[in-house]
TrEMBL record, chains A, B:
Listed GO MF terms: aspartate kinase activity; ATP binding
Keyword entries, A-Z: Amino-acid biosynthesis, ATP-binding, Diaminopimelate biosynthesis, Kinase, Lysine biosynthesis, Nucleotide-binding, Repeat, Transferase
Protein name: Aspartokinase
One GO cellular component term noted in the UniProt record for this chain: cytosol
One record GO biological process: diaminopimelate biosynthetic process
Matches recorded under NCBIfam families: asp_kin_monofn, asp_kinases, PRK06635.1-2, PRK06635.1-4
Pathway assigned to this chain's UniProt record: Amino-acid biosynthesis; L-lysine biosynthesis via DAP pathway; (S)-tetrahydrodipicolinate from L-aspartate: step 1/4; Amino-acid biosynthesis; L-methionine biosynthesis via de novo pathway; L-homoserine from L-aspartate: step 1/3; Amino-acid biosynthesis; L-threonine biosynthesis; L-threonine from L-aspartate: step 1/5
Functional description taken from the UniProt entry: Catalyzes the phosphorylation of the beta-carboxyl group of aspartic acid with ATP to yield 4-phospho-L-aspartate, which is involved in the branched biosynthetic pathway leading to the biosynthesis of amino acids threonine, isoleucine and methionine.
Enzyme category, top tier: transferase
Gene source species: Alicyclobacillus ferrooxydans
Reactions catalysed according to its record: L-aspartate + ATP = 4-phospho-L-aspartate + ADP
Length: 405, 405
């Protein structure tokens, strides 16, 4: 059995925690498994390195930024290797280059092109635990980094290329929950979710598992387990299909605060300017989420879409600059909104779920401003002041009482 | 003109100091020179990394220790490159591997085997300043470090292989002095010393320039300049021969505290055990310095030698264990000693210098316990309580009054 274990920054944040991680790896080896480990930088190392570069320049060279940031994981990989050897476990640290993690030649957010696994396989065949720096690779002679969620991505890629039996993602929570336990006391840990559900639960799970890693896990069919490095609790399995017969219709309740809605009133549909506006927003780094178009006349429509509140001003000015092209009559911005979503693979075969969601929200006096649906998710845009109540009543309705509609 | 500039840990210790270094490099480039830079780790980075590893294990894997420590210079190299680019100077950081610095496959104290200079030469030919991590190289797939004085060694090796016109060593003192200015107020900065003098002044100069780097500079005839990164003062030139006609007989007064003397009384010279005892001490890491053998009978001799006080106990027990082999009658340890040396290339042609030194010391009531001479140095072992006075009176006699004997 070959296990890839990934330990995040909090899990290796101090010398004591590195020792706890070493104990866990040693235990896994003692149980007869082969282990490859992927580590993040210790705690706030990356922030400290960013602070140093910020003190020197507002626009650091991307190549040098990657050279700088990649040292964080090198430190934790070397330290964990030492801690393993003290425990009698043969170990060897691998930088992205040493591990053969070749990326496209892009700094700051490179994608992994391939992994030349010979060195890792040699180590494993010699009974040596490779301790691999997450978040980084190489392109030509340069060090590259993978951007946000990079260590998760490294772990999944290593697991895929080594054909590991499982990729364990150790973090500071015990797994994926039906919703945020800080918001809903009755939230419970899921024993299993599908890749797609995990992706839809992204904003719940982003702290836990980066969507990009989930996508790659799905693509290469790498079974994931999310669990805590601070306890022995069973984690949450993320696999292709959870057992359809047993599962409840709704797996979890996701939510997002600080949403803003931009409404274009009376857009001329003949002008085809909508694609242009969304293209422009994307190029400017504005992430447009829910889009709703309601035809009110034959030639005009109202189009509204949501963005992060922090992007609202930028969105307004970019959209206003295109008023002629779009020929809308009016532009309305509404802030102070939130998005609440119910997620579950079982929805596909349960068409009444969306209606039930609207009922529950309406029954609790919560106004729904926009709706968006996918095969395994229904999202409602509501007032942010209603959000916590909405999550709570939806959790009660879908995850605590009746198991199906 | 190609200049290699090496900046030590103090010179790059803070963001502000890195900016000052960047200013100096930019100025050198603006003056029309090509520059390659070698940097140490920032200030106490290396100590902090060592502390982390010490918290995990008393005997860290040498490979992992090198992987760990090498990150310190990677950080400063990336940061300095950023600071240079902000100033409009094209720059690129190079790890030991990227710079092609191949070493023997030894961790912790590898010697440089060769430098594959293609990448550095390409950068220089493109007008890019290579900012090279000192102290490290690679062997096979592994990162290796060069041990104490490693960054100086890197700088000299890079200068040698690139056929640089000069290698400037920036540090926190303004040059090499006739003796320690903290001890003797009238000590003055030397404008020039020879490689050999610099080597003999080692314990004065160790904080300034590592002996190993001086040896390599001599071997490859790399002109060195030692100067301060905190001022614009002229430094000290270290070259093959200083101008023999102009130079004074004595260049500097070196000294060393905490010396212990071990005397073996009545050693049987027939037994040839002396080589064995010094071999054994060397293998155990005891650095034997001055050795004096005085024949008192035809078959017996008194042999005394000096070691560091911190090695005295170890030396005694190792020597005592060989009493049978050596068949000495008695073993005497004396601590609280010091070594004072006068150094100067001009001594070769001035045979009276040693006698003058003994006169000066005796005239000041300082007892000489052992003497050792080389072509350009005379060392006396004296009581440590006499040391400061000895340095002072020797400085007055040789470096302040008459320029020659």
């Amino acid at each position: 059995m070959l296990i890839v274990q990934k330990y995040g920054g909090t899990s290796v944040g101090t010398v004591e925690r590195i020792q706890a991680v070493a104990d866990r790896v040693a235990e896994t080896v003692a149980n007869g498994s082969s282990v490859a480990v992927v580590v993040s930088a210790m705690g706030h190392t990356t922030d400290e390195l960013v602070a140093l570069s910020s003190a020197l320049t507002r626009v650091p060279s991307p190549r040098e930024m990657d050279a700088l940031l990649s040292t964080g994981e090198q430190i934790s990989a070397a330290l964990l290797s030492m801690a393993l050897e003290v425990r009698g476990v043969r170990a060897r640290s691998f930088t992205g280059r040493q591990a053969g993690i070749e990326t496209e030649p892009v700094f700051g957010s490179a994608r992994i092109a391939t992994i030349h696994t010979e060195a890792l396989q040699t180590a494993l065949s010699e009974g040596v635990v490779p301790v691999i720096t997450g978040f980084q690779g190489y392109a030509g002679e340069d060090v590259t980094t993978l951007g946000r969620g990079g260590s998760d991505t490294t772990a999944v890629a290593v697991a895929a290329m080594l054909h590991a039996d499982v990729c364990e993602i150790y973090t500071d929570v015990t797994g994926v929950f039906t919703t945020d336990p800080r918001l809903v006391k009755t939230a419970r840990k899921l024993s299993e979710v599908s890749y797609d559900e995990m992706l839809e639960l992204a904003n719940l799970g982003a702290q836990v598992l980066h969507p990009r890693a989930v996508e790659n896990a799905k693509r290469y069919q790498v079974p994931l387990v999310v669990k805590s490095s601070f306890s022995q609790e069973e984690g949450t399995y993320v696999t292709e299909t959870s057992n359809l017969e047993q599962q409840s219709v709704v797996t979890g309740i996701a939510f997002e605060r600080e949403v803003a809605r931009v409404a274009l009133i009376g857009v001329s549909l003949q002008k085809h300017g909508l694609a242009a506006v969304f293209g422009k927003l994307a190029r400017e780094g504005v992430n447009v989420d829910v889009i709703v178009q309601s035809v009110v006349q034959t030639v005009d429509a109202d189009v509204s879409f949501t963005v992060r509140e922090s992007d609202a001003d930028k969105t307004l000015s970019l959209t206003r600059a295109m008023q002629e092209e779009l020929s809308f009559r009016d532009l309305v911005l509404e802030t102070g909104l939130a998005k609440v979503s119910i997620v579950g693979a079982g929805m596909i075969s349960n068409p009444g779920v969306a209606a039930r969601m609207f009922e529950v929200l309406a029954g609790n006096g919560i106004e729904i401003k926009m709706v968006s649906t996918s095969e395994i998710k229904v999202s409602c845009i509501i007032g942010e002041s209603d959000m916590e109540k909405a999550v709570s009543v939806l959790h009660t309705a879908f995850l605590e009482s009746s198991p199906a509609v």
